[in-house]
Design goal:
The structure is a single chain. With about 325 residues, the protein is an alpha/beta fold. Helices cover about 40% and strands about 25% of the residues. It has a five-stranded mixed sheet with strand order 8-7-6-11-12.
C-alpha cells in the first residue's frame, strides 16, 4: 500500500485543512501492531525492527520506548540531560488515570513529571483579562498541525476548564468510515488496515482536487465489495469549515454557555491565521473579543517558554515542557 504522492500546496489550503488531524486520529484510534497472546496469557505486540527479527513488547514497553525517544530528542535539542518534565496535555484527557500512567512511564524512562498543564490553560494564561478583575469566560481555539482543540474556560481565582472538544479528526474520513459499514457489514473502527487504507484514499482525492481536478471519485474496497463516492472542491471545503462550526457549537453546548456569554476568544495555532477559519469564528463571536496580538502560530511555544522560566525560578529546578503521550492507542 503506497502513500499518496507528496504535493506542494499552500499552508492556507482549505482542502487539506484537517489532513494532519486525520493522521493523528488514526494513530490514536488504531493499533499498528499485530497482537500475540503468549503462553503466559498476556497480550504482546509484534514490533518491527531494522533486521526484521520478531520482537514482542507489551503496551507498557511500547509507550516507555516512545517516551524515551521523546526525551532523547529533547536532550539533543537542549544539549543537556533532561530530568524534570512539565507535561503539556490536551484538556480532554486530564484524568487521574492518564496522569498516573504518564508518570509511571516517565519514571521507567528515567525522568520525573513534576507538573502538568492543559494546552488551553497555557494558551489562555498568555493574555491578561480585557475586563476589570473578576470572572471571565474564555474560549480557546487551538488549530494547527495535528491539533484541533476547542475549550471553554472560566477564570475565577485561576483558570478552570468547563468543556473541551478534540480528536475531531478529518471530516472526509469520518464521513467515509461512517458510511462504509452499512455497505460492508463490518466494524470499520476495529479494522486498522481498513482505516489506514481509507485515510490514504482520502489524501489521494484531496491531492487531486488541490492539483485542479473538478471532481474526484473515491473507491473503497473491502471483503470483495466496493463503494464509490464522488466529491468536488466546493463540497469538501464546506465540509471542512462545517467541521469547525460543529466543534464550536459542541463545546458551547457541553458547557451550557451561550456564545454571547463568551468574553474572550484566544487563538492558538498557525491555522487560526487562515482567513476562512477566522471567518467561521466571526460567525459566532465579535472581532473585539479576539485575543491574537501574539501571532497564533507562535503562541504555544512562547507561552511554554514563559511557563518554564517562571516554574524553574519559583522551584529552583530546571524543567522542560514535553507534550504528553496520547495513550489513545485504544487497541492497546
Amino acid at each position: 500500500m503506497e502513500p499518496p504522492a507528496r504535493i506542494s500546496c499552500s499552508g492556507n489550503c482549505l482542502i487539506h485543512l484537517h489532513s494532519a488531524a486525520g493522521k493523528a486520529w488514526l494513530q490514536q484510534h488504531s493499533c499498528p501492531f499485530q497482537q500475540h497472546v503468549g503462553p503466559d496469557g498476556f497480550t504482546r505486540f509484534r514490533v518491527p525492527t531494522a533486521n526484521n527479527e520478531p520482537t514482542f513488547l507489551s503496551a507498557y514497553e511500547i509507550f516507555t520506548s516512545l517516551f524515551q525517544r521523546q526525551i532523547a530528542a529533547l536532550e539533543r535539542l537542549n544539549g543537556q540531560r533532561v530530568q524534570n518534565i512539565v507535561a503539556l496535555i490536551p484538556a480532554t484527557i486530564n484524568s487521574r488515570s492518564y496522569l498516573s500512567e504518564l508518570s509511571t512511564i516517565a519514571a521507567a524512562a528515567g525522568v520525573r513529571i513534576v507538573h502538568s498543564i492543559q494546552r488551553s490553560v497555557l494558551a489562555a494564561s498568555a493574555y491578561r483579562s480585557l475586563r476589570t478583575p473578576g470572572r471571565r469566560t474564555i474560549l480557546v481555539f487551538e488549530f494547527g498541525g495535528q491539533f484541533l482543540e476547542i475549550s471553554l474556560l472560566t477564570e475565577d481565582r485561576g483558570l478552570n476548564i468547563m468543556a473541551a472538544v478534540s480528536e475531531l479528526g478529518c471530516p472526509l474520513m469520518n464521513y467515509l468510515v461512517s458510511a462504509v459499514p452499512w455497505s460492508f457489514g463490518i466494524d470499520s473502527e476495529c479494522d486498522s488496515l481498513f482505516l489506514l487504507y481509507t485515510r490514504l484514499e482520502c489524501e489521494r482525492a484531496k491531492n487531486a482536487l488541490c492539483l485542479g481536478s473538478a471532481t474526484v471519485e473515491i473507491k473503497i474496497e473491502q471483503l470483495g465489495m466496493e463503494t464509490r463516492t464522488s466529491i468536488n472542491r466546493e463540497w469538501l471545503v464546506q465540509m471542512n469549515l462545517n467541521h469547525l462550526r460543529s466543534g464550536i457549537m459542541r463545546c458551547l453546548t457541553e458547557a451550557g454557555v451561550r456564545k454571547e456569554a463568551v468574553d474572550e476568544v484566544v487563538l492558538a495555532g498557525a491555522s487560526c491565521n487562515i482567513p476562512e477559519v477566522r471567518g467561521v469564528l466571526l460567525e459566532f463571536f465579535h472581532w473585539d473579543k479576539f485575543r491574537c496580538s501574539i501571532d497564533p502560530a507562535n503562541l504555544m511555544s512562547l507561552s511554554s517558554q514563559q511557563f518554564i522560566n517562571n516554574f524553574s525560578s519559583t522551584f529552583n529546578i530546571p524543567v522542560v515542557i514535553l507534550e504528553g503521550l496520547n495513550l489513545g492507542l485504544y487497541a492497546l
